[in-house]
Amino acid sequence: MKIRNKALAGIALAATAALGLAACGSGTSTSPGSSAAADEKDSGGIIVYNAQHESLTKEWVDAFTAETGVKVTLRQGSDTEMSNQIVQEGQASPADVFLTENSPAMAQVENAGLFSDVDKATVDQVPAEFRPSTNKWTGIAARSTVLMYDKAKLSEGQLPKSMLDLAKPEWKGKWAASPSGADFQAIVSALLELKGEAAAEDWLKGMKENSKAYKGNSTAMKAVNAGEVDAALIYHYYYYGDQAKTGENSKNVAPYYFKNQDPGAFVSISGGGVLKSAKNAAAAQAFLKYITGKKGQEVLQKGTSFEYPVASGVPANDKLVPVKELQAPTVDPAKLNSAKVTELMTKAGLL
Predict the structure, then answer these.
(1) Can you name the residues that pair with 149 across neighbouring β-strands?
(2) Closest Cα partner for 12 from 292, 273, 278?
(3) What distance separates the 2 farthest-apart alpha carbons in the chain?
(4) DSSP-assigned letters across all residues of 311-350
(5) Are strands 97-99 and 175-177 parallel, antiparallel or unpaired?
């Protein structure tokens, strides 16, 4: 037993020591079964299964590596792809950290019992409204639901008071969404949690009758901008990101915020968690602490992602509506049910 304890202590010491090394390079992308992935396990580096935007995560990775010397290897995929992969791999997963765009994929991995507890120092950096009640993972960024509308076709007074109104007959053929995407399914997950299964099912039936489906939020916004449809239910940052570039895909549209704790005011939390299978748990926890720390959150505030910071008291980009003014409904992200949403959306003919 003493020998085993000494060995475990040595492993922990080696992982901790890795955090103090001089910078040794930035993140790379690889598959978990590759020799490069195996090398990370031997060198004290970490492997991140990343479903967040790759450019944003790379900013975090480069800054973290420069400060700690810990090399980070990224494996990129979608929320659902990555969460399903982790659940399939189980305790044999080579991943140390999982990052997502939306909460339901995090809840799926949590429900499979595959996350370690987040270190208290990291939890303390993130306000309760931006993390699950279980603290099995944490929020790392956020995005607000908005209705992008054609300013030439609709005045703000003509817009629906609630997201639920989009299921009414008067909105038939007038709005769009990207139902196959994890972003939209997170919005439906919030509706399910807030209003219950019967209300969610009714709304999805109305959506099937009224909405036009596009592949991707950007495509849906472009359709509104081109006059193909009057409005689209998406996340806010697609508009602000386009405006910061040429504005050619958003010059004719404006974002409408439902507010008033409406399901359409849902703020989706991007998540980060450390896997129980992590071979370099100390470095993995340090990475999560870094991206929720002041420097990590300032990447959101000052960068081009236009997502909301959620931790360490860092305010949002000046161009965004302040978080407090969004008047978002209270949703425990640990309770978002992606499996039930898929079932309901399939039943409604949306998937």
Answers:
(1) 231, 254
(2) 278
(3) 75
(4) STTPPPPTTSPPGGGG-PPP--GGG--HHHHHHHHHHTT-
(5) unpaired
pLDDT single digits (tens) 68-124 = 999 999 999 999 999 999 999 999 999 999 999 999 999 999 999 999 999 999 999
271, pLDDT greater than 90? yes
3-class SS string, 252-304: CEEEECCCCCCHHHCEEEEEEEEECCCCCHHHHHHHHHHHCCHHHHHHHHHCC
Q: How many CB atoms lie within 10 A of CB 219?
A: 16
Give, as one character, the DSSP assignment of residue 227.
Answer: T
Q: Which residues of 114-129 are buried (b: 16+ CB within 10 A; e: fewer)?
A: bbbebbeebbebbeeb
Residue 264 has pLDDT above 90, yes or no: yes
Question: 224 with 231: CB under 8 angstroms?
Answer: yes
20 has pLDDT over 90: no
Query: Nearest to residue 119, comparing CAs of 277, 272, 237?
Result: 272
> Which of 148, 112, 79, 143 is closest to 275 using CA atoms?
112
**Rounded-to-integer distance, Cα 328 and Cα 147, Å:** 14
